[in-house]
From TrEMBL, chain A:
InterPro entries per UniProt: Class_I_gatase-like, PRibForGlyAmidine_synth_PurQ
Subcellular location: Cytoplasm
Function: Part of the phosphoribosylformylglycinamidine synthase complex involved in the purines biosynthetic pathway. Catalyzes the ATP-dependent conversion of formylglycinamide ribonucleotide (FGAR) and glutamine to yield formylglycinamidine ribonucleotide (FGAM) and glutamate. The FGAM synthase complex is composed of three subunits. PurQ produces an ammonia molecule by converting glutamine to glutamate. PurL transfers the ammonia molecule to FGAR to form FGAM in an ATP-dependent manner.
Taxonomic lineage of the native organism: Bacteria, Pseudomonadati, Pseudomonadota, Alphaproteobacteria, Sphingomonadales
Quaternary data: Part of the FGAM synthase complex composed of 1 PurL, 1 PurQ and 2 PurS subunits.
Active site: C87 (nucleophile), H195, E197
Source species: Sphingomonas caseinilyticus
Protein name in UniProt: Phosphoribosylformylglycinamidine synthase subunit PurQ
Pathway: Purine metabolism; IMP biosynthesis via de novo pathway; 5-amino-1-(5-phospho-D-ribosyl)imidazole from N(2)-formyl-N(1)-(5-phospho-D-ribosyl)glycinamide: step 1/2
TrEMBL record, chain B:
Entry-linked NCBIfam families: phosphoribosylformylglycinamidine synthase subunit PurS, PRK05974.1
HAMAP family associated with the record: PurS (MF_01926)
GO molecular function per UniProt: phosphoribosylformylglycinamidine synthase activity
Pfam families attached to this UniProt entry: PurS
Function (record text): Part of the phosphoribosylformylglycinamidine synthase complex involved in the purines biosynthetic pathway. Catalyzes the ATP-dependent conversion of formylglycinamide ribonucleotide (FGAR) and glutamine to yield formylglycinamidine ribonucleotide (FGAM) and glutamate. The FGAM synthase complex is composed of three subunits. PurQ produces an ammonia molecule by converting glutamine to glutamate. PurL transfers the ammonia molecule to FGAR to form FGAM in an ATP-dependent manner.
Subcellular localization(s) per the UniProt record: Cytoplasm
Pathway it works in: Purine metabolism; IMP biosynthesis via de novo pathway; 5-amino-1-(5-phospho-D-ribosyl)imidazole from N(2)-formyl-N(1)-(5-phospho-D-ribosyl)glycinamide: step 1/2
Binding partners and assembly: Part of the FGAM synthase complex composed of 1 PurL, 1 PurQ and 2 PurS subunits.
Keyword hit for Transmembrane helix: no
DNA-binding in keyword set: no
Record's protein name: Phosphoribosylformylglycinamidine synthase subunit PurS
Superkingdom: Bacteria
Gene name as annotated: purS
Its EC number(s): 6.3.5.3
Amino acid sequence: MKSAVLVFPGSNCDRDLAVAIEQVTGRAPAMVWHREAELPDGTDFIAIPGGFSYGDYLRSGAMAARSPIMRAVSEAAGRGVPVLGICNGFQVLTEAGLLPGALMRNAGLHFVCRPVGLKVENSQSIFTSAYRAGEEISIPVAHHDGNYQADAETLDRLESEGRVAFRYTGEVNGSARSIAGIINAQGNVLGMMPHPERALETAHGNTDGRRLFEGLLEAVA
Amino acid sequence: MKARVFVTLKPGVLDPQGKAIHHALEGLGFGGVQEVRAGKLIELELADGTSDDEIADMCRKLLANTVIENFKIERMATA
């Protein structure tokens, strides 16, 4: 698998994500700076890391979503290349219009940084095929703006089309219908607030995030 | 010329920050506040002749997230 990890000014999970991808796929991803206009030839997986791109100026993910590399990402996503956005990466994907809805300030106004319970709602996607439907896993979150909101019609559509990938099992940030991660209509773009790259090896205390990368590798390879 | 863009949350969109401000006002003893909604004010210094359409385009493409926010443009008389 030929992966690319985007790097924006203020990204801070890019190296963790690169380590996770290399551990699982056996190949280090290309680190692609936001000013680039193109992805490396043959990129077959794009990962957008967590962090605080552009200091969360204007809105989380707003500036990054308009950076030159995101035009190439939109084009690749349209061709069916898998795109995974984690935390700030999820915010970037919604701001770029690649996923519906918006991530607003946590309902409790506090930054939430702890492992949370997640229910795998859809185990049929390229990102979740290594999980069992309905399985409960634990993955850490670390965010201030993770409160997923969309209009009722959009939420109903996400649910009826099986595009809710993960749901929180308890109250975390006020997200509509406890949504923690969603997939686009085409099935190749996943945005999620929890950090699977932080639950990858036993030293992390939990390896529930590892299967996301393993499942994806199997789906892509 | 100058323009001001007011970005506000759409009616019905939950505003946790507005709620917190409301509670803080009540904590200070201001009892008559019914609701607080927080938004943004963005001031633009523009080339003369910039059209309203162009400013609205800036709002739709960057300044506001129209999924959750409305915007209002106000042109200012130049001093």
